[in-house]
Amino acid sequence: MFVLYKNTGVHSGRALRKMLAELMNERVRGGYPKRFAGILKAGEDPKVVINLGVTDEVPYEGQIINTQDMVRAASNKKKARQIFEETEVPAPELYLVVRDVSKGDLPVIGRTSYHHKGQGFWFCKTLAEVKCADREGATHFLKFIPNTREYRVHTFIKRKYLEVSPEERKRENYVSIKISEKVWEGEGKPRKEEPQKNHEFGWIFRGPKDRREEELDVVRYAAKQAIAALGLDFGAVDVMYQVRSKQPYVLEVNSTPSLADENASTCEVYAGRILKTTSNSEGEE
Fold this sequence. Notes:
five-stranded antiparallel β-sheet; four-stranded parallel β-sheet; alpha+beta; 285 residues; 13 strands
């Protein structure tokens, strides 16, 4: 087995490689595409490759969990959100160009097609700010949804659907393996009329507490819809939930989930699911 990663996926890739090795009790290789190409050239042939967010082509014809094409579908956030709109995945209203945003649509959030965490982010309360965000590099805008809770739903393809082509995958082909809620643990209180951003000190993800199972089910359902629309094998889906309307809104799907937190069980959950998905044993999934 080989864990393929680069750039922002380095820490998660190393953590996943270590966890898989512990669970399998055998060596698991990992690294950048160049290193992977090198071991292939040397004659090694891993049975399975786990791809954490890499879009580079590699000279390998074996089994890849999250192929490069799948990762590309999720990496371009603008394109992914267009797919959500086309496939009726619940998501904030999308504005592709500045002229689509009217005064009645405000506030909106400007984003870039490719972004990481809080980068490429503009909270626009006026049309002048929308135009400014456009000049500074925003490629699209999203309707701001106030008074929401935000969840991260780690979602994985069921083993028996692994060979189904990405274009034919459905919501029921997936299972949610972990759900976390973004909560505030900083000083004071966050402003409900302002966006919640991960990179600002005080926001963390932890297991949901005192939440109705019906709410969590709605969030999980939306996450499965989103990941099926993109045809991924796995991913971390960010979903907002507006309590008053009981409506979920998918923000994005991340093909490089954060797995390096030693205080969280996420890495072990992923590793266990990967082994279950790639196992040759018989079973429902």
